[in-house]
Amino acid sequence: MEIRIVVDEAFHPRRFGELPTDVSELVTTRHFQKGEIINLQGEPAHHFFYVHTGHVRATIVRPDGIEKVLAFAEPGQFFSDVPFFQQINHWYTGEAVENTEVSVFSREAIKKINNVRPEFVFTLMQSMAHKVWMLSNQMMTITFDHSEVRLARILVEMLARKPEGTRILVSTHQELSALMGTSRVMVTRVLNGWRSTGIVSLRKGSIIINDFSALKRVADMGIG
């Protein structure tokens, strides 16, 4: 597999398809409205979740009040599975960014699933291993790649989660800086540079991608 494909996969969360019927029968389904908290940072991880519809934003808040966006979970993905199996507290908060439906897995449900469909546990292992793979590559890009490359990758990934042809992203510079792990000033500087070359146009609270091919070339620059 080419290194470009490997890195591209590492920055796009893996989807696992629909839950098997016999698994769905052993878990509960819950609906969350936009803005509702699904799991709270610091609370015991008695459950983990699978997204059917909608999107979930995972954020962590430092003791000084600074919030960092870690990732997004979308349909076909698990979240909060790592602290669940570690038997520790949730280390991030999961919030529904739109109306969202999830399956809720408890320890009792996992025991029953292991009896009726043991191969499903391997799917969970794949999910957690992929998160480790993504984290490793995110650390790599933070360490070695320029801010332009990191921001371009984030925007390309955000577009990948939207309907085909989407070119307007609703996001503030502050939100993007949290995703990048850098300052808002740096995000603004990069976006202003792209605006001057015609790659993007900027509006309050949104970014218009004028030249996706150019943005993708920037995102690929750090791959080597």
Quick rundown:
By secondary structure, this protein is an alpha+beta fold. The protein has 9 helices and 11 strands.
Structure in words:
It is a single chain. The protein is an alpha+beta fold. It folds into 2 domains: 128 residues, Jelly Rolls (Sandwich); 78 residues, Winged helix-like DNA-binding domain superfamily/Winged helix DNA-binding domain (Arc Repressor Mutant, subunit A, Orthogonal Bundle), CATH 1.10.10. Helix content is 44%, strand content 23%. The strands form 3 sheets. Strands 1-8-3-6 form a 4-stranded antiparallel beta sheet. The protein has a 4-stranded antiparallel beta sheet with strand order 2-7-4-5. A hairpin with a 5-residue loop joins β4 and β5. α6 crosses α9 and α7 crosses α8. The longest helix has 26 residues. It is elongated, with a radius of gyration of 18 Å. The two termini are 15 Å apart. The N terminus is likely disordered. Keywords: Activator, DNA-binding, Transcription, Transcription regulation. One of its GO terms (molecular function) is DNA-binding transcription factor activity. InterPro entries: cNMP-bd_dom, cNMP-bd_dom_sf, Env_Response_Regulators, HTH_CRP, RmlC-like_jellyroll, WH-like_DNA-bd_sf, WH_DNA-bd_sf.
